[in-house]
Amino acid sequence: MSIESKNETGQYVEAIRRSGMSIYDPIEIGDPELWIPTSELEVLLDMALRGISLSGLPLRTRSKVVKQHVCRALGYPVPSRFRHTRPRFPGQCFDTYIQKSNNLQVWNEDLAPTRRYVIIRVGEEDKITKVKVVTGDTLAVLNTTGTLTQKYQARLIPSELHSELISGEDTDKLRPFVRPGVKVAMGVSPVDHPRSSQLIPVGEIYERLRLLVGRQFTDTGSDQERNRGAALHQLVCQYLGYNNYQDDGQFPDIRNQLLEVKLQTSPTIDLGLVCPDSEGVLDVPRIGGQQIRHCDVRYALFYATTDGEYVTITHFFLTTGEKFFERFPQFQGKVLNKKLQISLPSNFFEI
Q1: Rounded CA gap, 35 and 286, in Å?
Q2: Does pLDDT of 221 surpass 80?
Q3: In the chain, N or C terminus with fewer CB closer than 10 Å?
């Protein structure tokens, strides 16, 4: 996140404080004054909660104390009693989880794709050491146990063409905000929020990224899929014109361009909890007064082979979420699994 974005976080707190709203008052996703985007929510809560001691507190009291601190950090009044709502903080659509281990348990309900999960790491001295905020969709992708609630999948079958532009234009909603020939400004981060007239048209993204076909990078092993993905993300950022690389684990990968990047070494495309063609709203601030949807996101898929030492990109596909299933057939139904005991990656709080 850029310095400019970090400076905006305090404005949300002041706006909430002035509004007099409670944590139970609904706020529309993307509201430019009152809705706190996920990345800013993480910054605010990490700064406010880190270092707080929970030593000696019973589990129920500990949970209540953390919620009180969260209210103060975000500018909300502390309620006299916390209601048993789902999620616990309906106004900003998030739940809190206090974790001493990497074994995250979500009780009695499925992961919700657009809900935020505030995961609070407590160290050996019972002090809060880190706060991470992820959406349900991101949390499902991070799971390594295979025990997801549900996820969508599609199939990628390469053709004789080494690169394909499935959708030649952006969606009707996004098209007014893209600008031909735009260059990424110095200091802009790949995870900054998208802004009007700073979005590269889908056709130009295709022309820049199709040059990656044939490129190789070091293979870190099939058990290090995230590292493989990170290597690809760095190349994508470079070819799009960013002078830095950053990945906060949120959807979409390159939020500044509303671009999700997927590396495929097998035909099965894991899509998480949200269908690409969903018209559900995306957790980013409005652009030109319009709320961006999941189907407006652009998907860059790179098919690759590996010899154990190097990953070689052989095919590239680019599409909008709206047109995704026109090229990649969706598996019938959902892959279901009701067990919700998620083993977080060892580097979860470092991402």
Answers
A1: 10
A2: no
A3: C
Q: In terms of DSSP bridges, do strands 335-336 and 150-155 run parallel, antiparallel, or are they unpaired?
A: antiparallel
CB neighbourhood size of 93 (10 A):
18
At what angle are helices 225-240 and 202-209 packed, to 10 degrees? Answer: 110
Question: Which residues on adjacent β-strands are paired with residue 290?
Answer: 287
**Two structure tokens written together for 266:** 């097998």
Q: How far apart are the first and last CA of the chain?
A: 13
Dist. CA 132–CA 118, nearest whole Å: 6
Distance CA 156, CA 314 (A): 13
pTM of the complete model: 0.80
Task: Please list, in sequence order, all residues whose beta carbon lies within 8 angstroms of the beta carbon of residue 67, skipping any fewer than 6 positions away.
Answer: 82, 88, 89, 96
Per residue in 36-60, pLDDT (tens digit) is 999 999 999 999 999 999 998 888 8
CB 342 within 8 A of CB 123: no
CB atoms within 10 A of CB 65: 15
